[in-house]
UniProtKB/TrEMBL annotation:
This is Translation initiation factor IF-2, mitochondrial. One of the essential components for the initiation of protein synthesis. Protects formylmethionyl-tRNA from spontaneous hydrolysis and promotes its binding to the 30S ribosomal subunits. Also involved in the hydrolysis of GTP during the formation of the 70S ribosomal complex. It comes from Calypte anna. HAMAP family: IF_2_B. NCBIfam families: small_GTP (TIGR00231). It is found in: Mitochondrion. Belongs to the TRAFAC class translation factor GTPase superfamily. Classic translation factor GTPase family. IF-2 subfamily. The keyword Mitochondrion applies.
Length: 726
């Protein structure tokens, strides 16, 4: 045998050895077992071939031929694995575990996990020991193994020290000094609250309000001719601003309830009374517009009796003063009544120590940044004080009074506008002074942490509820396939989901007209809050879905335009502006910007926008009516066609329009006519009193007494069923 032939044989031997190794690897993958090399005791058959000396010279080939792979047995594998003892047959599971981790937790081998997964719809061919299983799969494996599971406790975080800022203990009575009373003016819209305050302050606030309607909380310090000071909070009376009114009563000492003498008790009057009762604040009744000829103050007092507001002349404790805010009549009497009540309450404050207060209103100013209107309740606020409110803080840079004049300090009971906030706090937040900026950072960090923990807890509750619902749905599906083998189940699921496997995500070719995406911008926090409160009452999602993409304070910006473009939204602005560049950008991109200064007009515009997105409703207008007097049939080709002999009772029958057949009050058929004849002639129209024969586009037998109605369909614009409540 020549040398070339021997080399070819050597190559064939090497190829056979490589094939054997590949086959052994495939066996390993299928059986999930370990393999190891062992020395073979069997001589290769090639050792008996002629010319053995050539084989001995090539040691590499001899070693390859003297080895083979063999699979370790299941028993050998089990001996090597250390089983983890189970406590009470329970397995601690996590939301995500690898197959290997689950096997260790259960004290089983990996093959057991694969066997249990055969009873699920999981594709085990794609799984490896380090593949991740999710909670539903893990629980199913444990249950199929006849064991119980319990959720593993998360590693408890080292308990974080509470670094929140808190109010100081009650002050020593010896340091208390008299302070101005905080008086909130409440009442129904347009009953003259702001005009009353204008007359007391001798200003013209009402004329500056859009539509003459107050739409913010205004905090004002009024100096009376007698020398006393009173801090007034002028709250909106419109239905939309309920939250603002509630906030006003929680920081006040006295409530002046303004009721128009000609209108009497109205919806927001009742709500204002309830706010005062909830806050435990005494009332003074101001019956306004008594100068009008139709005024009836006594009727107002009697109407208030039904709401447990009893005036002094009826044996109660509520002072009632008849006034005319527009003409300035009896205003000093009202002011004296307020001062007298304040003296009875013995209102005092602590001007020393760290500042405490409440945020009344917030807004953003282009030049000054975030601003808050606040009432100081304790301590004296000065420049440089470090304050925290909610999850933000401020180092006071400037303070202003209600007229925008800079002031150096503010004592208890004084309203003040504060400049220097890092971010805008929320109206109603408690203001507390802290020792340093570092301490402010600690407080904000703690409050953010607490909020995150609460959110995580809520999220976990939602996740668990969804998982429970998903598990129940999954178990119902499994019950349907209980009689099938796992291969049959897999085939059924494949057929059911086959259409999804080959479908591509659809590109958004057209905008969904039944979704209204809105971006809300307001001048102050309270205005945005009021608008969102109204939109929260939206309950017509089946007509048009509402999606609030973004809300915030400040003028319309490029970011708002970009958001509106991305979501095909509409921007609603309340008491804000959009500069020319923004308007041009919006017009170029086809974005609607709707700006309003009166809240009910904004809501009306919002409803109009919803109405424009509703599909039109189809209305049937009856054109004519005919009654069936006789029935017969005619032969057309090989078919018999039912024909009705009719007389038009009302209107006319027009062959081009739609028809319906009514029998005993029920609609039997809708469609068009196949023929309409008068004296054997084909016609298009039959008028009142004329006889005709007609057949339908469908073979339906007529009965004497049936009614034939001719009608036309018209599209009519729909209006939303949502009612914002005003």
């Amino acid at each position: 045998m020549n040398r070339g032939l021997i080399l070819k044989l050597e190559n064939l031997v090497q190829l056979r050895g490589a094939c054997r190794q590949l086959r052994t690897l495939s066996y390993r993958r299928v059986n999930r077992a370990q393999w190891r090399p062992v020395q073979s005791s069997v001589h290769p058959m090639w050792s008996v071939l002629p010319y053995p000396q050539f084989w001995q010279k090539d040691k590499l080939i001899s070693i390859a031929l003297s080895q083979h792979r063999h699979l370790a047995t299941k028993e050998e594998t089990k001996k090597k694995k250390r089983k983890i003892p189970l406590t009470k047959g329970e397995v601690e599971i996590r939301q995500k575990m690898t197959i290997e981790e689950l096997a260790q937790a259960m004290g089983k081998d990996i093959d057991h996990i694969y066997e249990a997964l055969l009873y699920t719809d999981t594709d085990i061919d794609s799984l490896e020991p380090d593949s991740v299983l999710y909670e539903d799969q893990i629980k199913l494996v444990v249950k199929k193994s006849g064991m119980k599971y319990k959720s593993a406790k998360l590693k408890e975080e080292k308990e974080r020290e509470n670094t929140d800022a808190v109010k100081r203990p009650p002050a020593d009575p010896a340091v208390l000094t008299p302070r101005p009373p905080v008086v909130t003016i409440l009442g129904h819209v347009d009953h003259g609250k702001t005009t009353l305050l204008d007359s007391l302050r001798k200003t013209q606030v009402a004329s500056m309000e859009a539509g003459g309607i107050t739409q913010h909380i205004g905090a004002f310090l009024v100096h009376l001719p007698s020398g006393e000071k009173i801090t007034f909070l002028d709250t909106p009376g419109h239905a939309a601003f309920s939250a603002m009114r509630a906030r006003g009563t929680h920081v006040t000492d006295i409530v002046i309830l303004v009721v128009a003498a000609e209108d009497g008790v109205m919806q927001q009057t009742i709500e204002s009374i309830q706010h005062a009762k909830n806050a435990g604040v005494p009332l003074i009744l101001a019956i306004n517009k008594c100068d009008k000829p139709e005024a009836d103050p006594e009727r107002v007092k009697k109407e208030l009796l039904a709401h447990d507001v009893v005036c002094e002349e009826y044996g109660g404790d509520v002072q009632a003063v008849n006034i005319s805010a527009l003409k300035g009549e009896n205003l000093m009497v009202l002011a004296e009544a307020t001062v007298a009540l304040a003296e009875m309450l013995e209102l005092k404050g602590d001007p020393t120590g760290l500042v405490e207060g409440t945020v009344i209103e917030c807004r953003k100013d282009k030049g000054k940044g975030p601003l808050t209107t606040a009432i100081i309740q304790r301590g004296t606020l000065r420049k440089g004080c470090v304050l925290v409110a909610g999850k933000t803080w401020a180092k006071v840079r400037f303070m202003f009074d209600e007229n925008g004049k800079a002031i150096d300090e503010a004592s208890p009971g004084i309203p003040v506008e504060i400049m220097g906030w890092k971010e805008v706090p929320s109206a109603g937040d408690e203001i507390l002074e802290v020792e340093s900026e570092q301490r402010a950072h600690e407080v904000v960090a703690w409050r953010t942490y607490v909020e995150q923990q609460e959110k995580m807890k809520k999220d976990m509750d939602i996740i668990e509820a969804k998982q429970k619902a998903h598990r129940m749905e999954y178990e119902k599906k499994q019950e349907k396939f209980a009689h099938l083998t796992w291969r049959q189940r897999k085939a059924v699921l494949y057929k059911a989901n086959k259409h999804l496997m080959f479908s591509k995500p659809k590109e958004r070719t057209e905008v969904d007209k039944n979704v209204l995406s809105v971006i809300v911008k307001g001048d102050v926090d309270g205005s945005v809050e009021a608008i969102l409160h109204i939109l929260d009452s939206y309950d017509a999602d089946e007509e048009c879905k509402l999606d609030i993409v973004h809300f915030g304070m400040g003028d319309i910006s490029e970011t708002d335009i970009s958001l509106a473009e991305a979501f095909n939204g509409v921007i609603f602005g309340f008491s804000v502006k959009a500069n020319e560049n923004i308007k041009k950008m919006a017009a170029k991109k086809g974005i609607k910007i709707k700006l309003h200064n009166i809240i009910y007009k904004l809501i009306e515009d919002f409803k109009d926008e919803i109405n424009s997105r509703l599909p039109p409703s189809v209305v049937e207008n009856t054109v004519g009516e005919a009654s069936v007097l006789n029935t017969f049939s005619v032969t057309v080709g090989k078919n018999k066609v039912p024909v009705a002999g009719c007389r038009v009772q009302k209107g006319m029958l027009d062959k081009k329009m739609q028809f319906k057949l009514i029998r005993n009050g029920n609609v039997i058929w809708k469609g068009s006519l196949s023929s309409l004849k008068h004296h054997k002639d084909d016609v298009q129209v039959i008028k009142t009193g004329m006889d005709c024969g007609l057949s339908l586009d469908k073979n339906i037998e007529f009965s004497i007494g049936d009614e034939i109605i001719c009608y036309e369909e018209k599209e009519v614009e729909r209006t939303t069923s949502w009612d914002p409540g005003f």
